[in-house]
Design brief:
With 100 residues, this protein is α+β, with helices and mostly antiparallel strands. It is built from five helices and three strands.
Length: 100
């Protein structure tokens, strides 16, 4: 049986840990995403807009992370009839910058 030790961690340090974990996960996923034929075909159509849910699935993160990236101005959100959309080409460009 494993032993667990609980300790207090400042919120800023916890955020940093989560951010590092997200970046490592993204770096592992990007090569497989970019080799996926469907995504490559979609990239050829740079005008394609996707939902936050679709963006989260492509990036392998939750929709709240997509919201955080939008707030951090990593890519632009577009509103169509009240629905938030993201340009696929902008998302892929952003994800590519996360690859080492």
């Amino acid at each position: 049986m494993e032993a667990f030790v609980m300790t207090a961690v400042p919120l800023s340090q916890l955020r940093s840990i989560f951010r590092e974990e997200q970046e490592q996960a993204i770096k592992k996923l990007i090569p497989s995403i970019l080799t996926n034929n469907q995504v490559n075909n979609d990239l050829a159509n740079s005008d394609k807009y996707i939902s936050k849910k679709e963006a989260a699935e492509i990036a392998g993160v939750g929709t709240s992370t997509i919201d955080n990236w939008i707030r951090a101005k990593q890519f632009t959100k577009y509103k169509f009839a009240g629905a938030v959309r993201i340009k696929l080409s902008e998302l892929i460009r952003f994800l590519e910058t996360k690859v080492v």
